[in-house]
Amino acid sequence: MKSRVALAAISLVVLSRLAHAQAPKEGGITPEEFEAKLGYQTGDVTLPGGIATIRLPESFRYLGPEGSRRLLTEAWGNPPEAADDVLGMLVPSKESPLSPGGWGVVITFDDDGYVNDSDAANIDYTKLLKEMQEGAQAANEERREEGFEPVTLVGWAEPPSYDANTHKLYWAKDLMFGDSKEHTLNYNIRILGRRGVLVLNAVAGMEQLPVIRSEARNLLSAVEFSGGHRYTDYLPGKDKAAAYGITGLIVGATAAKAGFFKALLVGLLAFKKVLFAGVIALGAALKRLLGRSTQPATGDAGNAV
Questions:
Q1: Could you tell me which of 167, 223, 163, 216 has the C-alpha nearest to residue 188?
Q2: Which of 69, 127, 140, 241 has minimal Cβ neighbours within 10 Å of its Cβ?
Q3: Cα-flanking dihedrals φ and ψ of residue 185, to 5°?
Q4: Which stretches of the chain score pLDDT less than 70?
Q5: From residue 188, how far is each of 54, 240, 286 by CA, in Å?
Q6: 205 secondary structure, DSSP code
Q7: Cα torsion for 293, 109, 140, 101, to the nearest 10°?
Q8: Which residues contact 112 (CB under 8 A, 6 or more apart)?
Q9: Which 8-state DSSP code applies to residue 55?
Q10: What does the angle CA 107 – CA 109 – CA 111 come to, to the nearest 5 degrees?
Q11: Separation between Cα atoms, residue 43 and residue 41, nearest integer Å
């Protein structure tokens, strides 16, 4: 699916090349003028298609698809594919996204289907981390061949946590690119629904982990699927079921299926290295994990992917 390939293409790394994030200077527009035209929204926001509602806390503003596209591509210098299928972004109210300390949360929807969460209670996250680290090391051989620097999965910046009552999951990885002493934060939030998963990925630096850790709780409670789209609305035997469970979400099943390394793109972002989706363990280790630990949910086998 095109949307998955586009997401996979920006999933691994956006390398830092610029000294400062800034608005385009064509026509003499200033950063302030650029930001004023992004179209911030506050209060309650309905995502495109009406699939979910965000009751924005005062600490965040929302950008729709067009404003998100402009911020990601024109201001942050990412390739056009970075904005494909983006439903919106959440940007801190008190921090300009054009400032060196600016950050945001990119929102997309993965329509792979209903994700069976029955494996959540039995996941050994320490063991999973070790296998993902091994997978990252194996994947680095292909990265080097493609001309990209190796990626080291240092560890959990925030261990995975899944709430079986609300069907919401979050975790964060501590990553290092090449020989850089500056580590990269990869913070992930997943909200499970009837037909797929809302994907929220924080675009930030490791130094912003404390504030993102605090705000993540607010975001988890602020985002809810609309009626008919909720996890509990799933109809076994009629609705599509994903071919992976909670383990697959953490490891990165979707981007793996999209042929990740063949789609790698490198973009630009100020003072940061950014990871959009939680995909590190690819190759043999990923296949082993998905084959062993993720099974399709009960439903129409013909619709499972």
A1: 216
A2: 127
A3: -95, 130
A4: 1-28, 253-305
A5: 17, 24, 18
A6: B
A7: -130
A8: 196, 197, 240, 242, 243, 244, 253, 254, 305
A9: E
A10: 170
A11: 7
In this structure, are residues 42 and 71 in contact, taking their beta carbons and an 8 Å threshold?
Answer: no
Q: Residues 4, 49, 299, CA angle at the centre, nearest 5°? A: 60
pLDDT of residue 290: 42
Burial code of 217-246, b = ≥16 C-beta within 10 A, e = fewer? ebbbebbbbeeebbbeebeeeebbbbbbbb
CB 189 within 8 A of CB 166: no
Which pLDDT value is given to residue 262?
A: 28
C-alpha distances in angstroms, 36 versus 23, 30, 92, 123?
11, 10, 15, 45
As given in the structure block, the two tokens for residue 84 are 């494909």
In this structure, the number of other CB atoms found within 10 A of the CB of residue 125 comes to 15
- In angstroms, how far is CA 52 from the centroid of its own chain? 17
Q: Largest alpha-carbon pair distance within the chain?
A: 57
**27 Cα distance to chain centroid:** 33
Evaluate whether 159 touches 171 at the Cβ level (below 8 Å).
yes
Place of tokens 């965040």: 60
285's tokens: 């280790």
In the DSSP assignment, the letter for residue 237 is T
140 is written with which tokens?
A: 């680095």
Residues 160 and 123 sit within 8 Å (Cβ to Cβ) = yes
Nearest to 195 by CA among 110, 87, 107: 110
Neighbours of 291 (CB within 10 A): 9
Helices 284-293, 125-145: inter-axial angle, 10-degree rounding: 150
Q: On the CB side of 148, how many CA atoms lie within 13 Å of its CA?
A: 22
Taken in order 286, 292, 297, 300, is the CA torsion positive or negative? positive
The DSSP code for 226 is P
Q: One-letter amino acid identity for 17?
A: R
Q: Tell the residue number behind the tokens 């591509």, with chain if given.
A: 73
